Amino acid sequence: MSTSPSPRLMRIAIGSVAVGLGVLALKAVAWQLTGSIALMSDALESLVNVAAALAVIVALHVAHRPADENHPYGHHKAEFFSAVLEGVLIVLAALLILREAYAGFITPRALDAPLTGLALNAGASLINGAWAVVLIRYGRRHRSPALVADGKHLMTDVVSSVGVLVGFVLAFASGWWWLDPVMAALVALNILWSGWTVIKGSLSGLMDEAVSDEEMATIRRVISLSASDDDALEAHDLRTRHAGQVTFIDFHLVMPGETTVEAAHNLCDRIEAALMEALPDARVTIHVEPEHKAKHSGIVVLS
After folding, report:
1. Chain segment 51-61, per-residue pLDDT in tens
2. Do 178 and 234 belong to one domain?
3. Whether residue 33 is found in the same domain as residue 139
4. Are residues 180 and 126 in the same domain?
C-alpha cells in the first residue's frame, strides 16, 4: 500500500486551504467595510474552513501510513478523526457567532458601504459553492470522509452566505438594523446543525458501521458468482466495515470436507481478487470451514 496520499488527492486538499484563505480574505474585507455582524459570522465560518482544510491534509498523510506493529489494520480511521475535529470547530464557531449576534441585537447599528460588501461576499460565496461541489464529488469517488465532510461544510457555508446577503439587503432597505444580528443568529443555528451532521457521520465510521445496502448487495453477488465454478457450498457470517477509503470484509466459506488446503486457498484468492476488482480498496479475510459447519443461511453459492 502507498505510504502517502495520491498527488491529486493532496492537490485537492491543498487547494482547499488556498480557496479557504482567498474566501476568508474577501469576507473579512466585506465585514470591515460594513461592520455587519452577519458578515462577521460568515467570515468567522471561513476561518474555520481554513483550519479544517489544514486538518484534512494532516489526516490524509496519517491515514495513508502503512500498517505497523501498533496499528496492524493501518491508520485509515485518521480521516474520521479529522471530520470530527471539523464538526467541533463548526460548533465552536456557531457559539461565538451567537454571542456576537446577541450583543448586536441589544445595541443595533447602521451598516456602511453595503454595495461593496455585498459584492465581495457574493463573489466569495460563488467560489465556495464551486469548490464544495469538487470536494464532495472527488471525496465520494475516492471514499475520503475528510474531503466529503469538508465539502459539505463549505456547502452549508454557501447556504449561510445566501441567508446573510438576503438579511443584509432587507436591513439596508428597511432601516431595521436589528435584522443583521438576527440573520447572524440564524446562520449560527444552521452552522450548529451542520456541525452535528458532520460529527454524527464521522462517529458512524469510528463505530465500524457496515457498508451501505447497495455495497452489501454487490459483495454478496461477487462472492456467490466467483465461487460458482468450485465446490464451495455457502458463505455465512459476512461482516463489513469502512475505515476511511478502505472497506474491510470478512466471512466464513463452507467447503466439502475432502477439499485440499491448496484448492481452498486458490478459491479464496479468486474470491478476494473479484471483491477487490468490485471494491478497489477492499481488505478481505476468509475463514474456510468444512461442510458440517454449514448454517444453511447467508450467501448461497450459485452452481
Report:
1. 777 777 776 67
2. no
3. yes
4. yes
Q: Read off the pLDDT of residues 208-252 as tens digits, 9 standing for 90 and up.
A: 677 888 889 999 999 988 877 667 888 888 999 877 667 889 999
- The single-letter code of the amino acid at 297 is S
Contact (CB, 8 A) for 49 and 151:
no
Q: Which amino acid is at 104?
A: G
Same domain, 155 and 256: no
Rounded CA-CA distance 102/110 in Å is 16
SS3 label, residue 199 = helix
- Name residues whose C-beta falls within 8 Å of residue 76's C-beta, 6 or more positions apart in sequence: 63, 243, 244, 245, 246
Q: Is the CB of residue 42 less than 8 Å from the CB of residue 161?
A: yes
In angstroms, rounded to a whole number, what is the distance separating the alpha carbons of residues 185 and 43? 14
pTM: 0.55
**Could you give the number of structural domains in the chain?**
2
List, in sequence order, every residue forming a beta bridge with 247; answer none if it has no partner: 242, 282
Taking alpha carbons only, the member of 179, 155, 176, 175 closest to residue 166 is: 179
Spatial distance between the Cα atoms of 59 and 80, rounded to a whole number of angstroms: 8
Segments forming the whole domain that contains residue 222: 213-300
